[in-house]
TrEMBL record:
Record's keyword annotation contains Hydrolase: yes
Name listed for the protein in its UniProt record: DNA repair exonuclease
UniProtKB keywords: Exonuclease, Hydrolase, Nuclease
Organism whose genome encodes this protein: Thermobifida halotolerans
Superkingdom, natural source: Bacteria
Amino acid sequence: MKLLHAADLHVDSPLRGLSRYEGAPAEQLRDATRRALENLVDLAVAEEVTAVLLAGDVYDGDWPDYNTGLFFTRQMARLREADIPVYLIAGNHDAQNSMTKTLSLPDNVHSFRTDRPDTVVDEARGLAVHGQGFARYDITDNLAVHYPSPVPDLFNVGLLHTALNGREGHHHYAPCSIGDLVDRGYQYWALGHVHRRRVEHDSDVKVVFPGNIQGRHARETGPKGCTLVTVDDRHAVADLRHHDLDSTARWHEARVDMAGARDLDDACVLVAEQLAKEVDAATAPGRVHAVRVVAEGPTDAHHALHRDQERFLNEVRSLASQRGDVWIEKVRVKTAPPEEGPSAAQLAGLLGDLRRVGDLLSADPERLKQLVGSSGLLGKLPSGVGARLQRPDEQSRLAVEAVELLAAELEGRR
């Protein structure tokens, strides 16, 4: 058995924060969420999956017009043509009371109730799916504890839109614990709401967030897609595999250490190198990379970067346009003036003074004895160690070692 688990499709949600400028690949990004959904359906058909699980937020809110619903309906019909059932729940973005427009879905799609948990049993496929959608966007009740008992001799899936006990950047909707989920006795929990892929529990019970299928802004970086779940004949999960779906656009944050830059031109060279590192590994035909550049760290170029941020921004945009597949979302300058330490001449002087002090102490045991006594060190040490430190030869040896250690530290900074 193979199941394809996805969530947070946010169909027709715009990609946010991207400024239009000459050479920016705007047209390629317009339908990014639609292309990701098409890729999901393509993958389901190619893998001949048993079912598709959609764990909430199919939509990004009420449709501006019916075209969003028509597009989704067509993709579900493609799955029906391949004899693939779909199980979906409403999340906080497409909660029942948020949607003023609706369309009938193909008969291979089961939308779970929003007033109580429901179970769909498909004995022919060996599958039982349990779920409950959001009746309103701000569900704060623990829905999971009311889910039904597992159906014996079938693979049981729990479909739930939740942030568990809370996740940074996500509202605390339908809160529950891992223990609440494990206690239901299902083999797999198909979760939605958190936009980063995470396997929250990896034992005989799998609890998985697949992440969203398409990054939409600078806080949603990295590969986005779905999870392919392979189930063995004993109704145990044999494999969990992430599949990228974001063929149109991917978000990155390129943090650039400016320590080696002397001026703005040097800074641009460092940015170009980091852009290549960030983007080259994720390059795919037709994919645009939306990048936020953060120039940071102490640097000699600090004042030049802050003085001429407009030129720096457009130099970075120019670098991106020369590649053709990079759109600069934003350039942030978070540099600082270079750290000021002692000059080479000052270090040489300190080193000379240190060696002279060491020579004086070695030649004057009485002064060294007074220095050790006035430090209060002897009273803080174990009696055996303190007694040894009162011997002039031991004091002289340690003084020489201390001077050599400090001298080595200063030599390392020259």
